Amino acid sequence: MSSSRNQRDEALYESQNDTRLDELHSKLRTLRHVTIDIHNDAHAQNRELDNTSNIFTSFQSSLASSSQRAARAFGIGPGGVKQTRLILMIVAAMFGLWVLWRGWAWWTGPVVSV
User: Fold this and answer.
1) Mean pLDDT along residues 1-18
2) Is this prediction's pTM over 0.90?
């Protein structure tokens, strides 16, 4: 009887071990899928960061080119018109227009009826 009981206990233990082994296998499979998902997500984020870096590099070169063209247009670079000279020319032009306007007003004058 003892031998029969030992065999039942061994069968029960073996069954419990198989159940636990299946549970462990299921958990390992789930963990494997999670790590694969994390790996794929990390690669996708790295690709997105690379694309963003490329966009910012392109924007930087475009901005540098635009600022160089603006510097040439406003004469800020070497060989160009200095900013103070440009301001003086604008003020002189405005003063000249004001003098012409006042001169025209004086020359034409108000019409006096007799």
Assistant:
1) 87
2) no
